[in-house]
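From the pipeline queue, job 12 of 40. The input is one protein chain; the requested action is below.

Action: predict structure.
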Amino acid sequence: MEAVLIEDEQAVRLATAQTLELAGLAVHACASAEQAQQWLHAGFAGIVVTDVRLPGQSGLDVLAQVVAADADLPVIVITGHGDISMAVNVMRTGAYDFIEKPYAAERLQETALRAQEKRRLVLENRSLKQTLAARPDMPDLIGQSAPIEKVRKFIQNIGPTQADVLINGATGTGKEVVARLLHANSGRRGEFVAINCGALPESMFESEIFGHEAGAFTSAQKRRIGKLEYANGGTIFLDEIESMPLALQVKLLRVLQERRLERLGGNVQIDLDCRVIAASKMDLLALSADGKFREDLYYRLSVVSLSLPRLNERRQDIPMLLAYFVQKAALRYQKPVPDWHSAQIELWKQRDWPGNVRELRNFADKLVLGVLDDEAGAGAASGSNAAAGPDTLPRRMDAYEASLIAEAMKANAGNVASAAESLGIPKKTLYDKLKKYQWSGGARHPE
């Protein structure tokens, strides 16, 4: 967080800079508008705080310049000489706020932090729009946690090779996203073809994947190119491969070994240049031990394999993921980006998220649409206790307290009495705080 401060009186400039620094902003203190020019542009990520009366260009000139360069760059105008008409004029011109001397330090700090938060959201939204415009069909691997960095490194190393890959992961962990990124990094010019093996009726399986010749069966009036052949030169993604019938697993194994296939009802061998990426939410080795999946196919697919982490194994990525999905949802539904504060994020980070990233994405949609129920944390959109605001020291303390409470509740399996004892507070106090932070993880009440 940073701010450009323009104030010609040295003592006032020093005091104001200290006030802003105490709020957590890095301050570029300038004695004139001319000294501040290097920051007064659309790419500046901070805010502008300026006095009205300055040597050379005035604060009102600075405001006009900034509005012309980027109307979303917040400018806070300060003056000891203002009146009502000036305040109205400044706000109409495009100032974020107008503060008249003398003012309380807290007033400036709160205004500056709100302005900085607005600036951050504006820049994030712009960046997202540019990303979506440049790569509308390309998924993103969001996060900076160690588990997701490991996945990212795997994609970078294995993507450019021709190796087939087996991806294992629970529902909603992003198996298709990773498959698409592997294809994007492969340099292959053919199509990425995805097929959900669990959604295909067994009677259609062979024809859909391997194709058929005209007359191969009663309704086969003309030749059909199967998914494998259609993906020639590209990548085929076989999701839920554990659902593939055992008889067809044999045929797939042969295709993988020989890189040739025969259409159903045909005799011609068709050369195949197709990378195969398979995915499963099941333990295929355990299934093979039970005779429910071919062991030879498992070992053929798992030469190169990747296990995706659950969302609760990379909780630190939740704020970044949520911000990303919220931005996308806001664009899709043409809705404003909703506000939330850090205490809520800490609570959301402690949820189990059994649906993983997919569940979080649906949560973001509901958050934007304002249809969250109380259990999911509707306070983010309702503006009650969870009303948005600057990330001040009290809010940071609330966030820390909320995280400690969430950890204690999970460690004690939702038992309020045990959690209160571990926290060293009365049960009544813990009940009040659970209500304050809209705890949604469940609670067991002692008899």
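Job complete. The radius of gyration is 29 Å.
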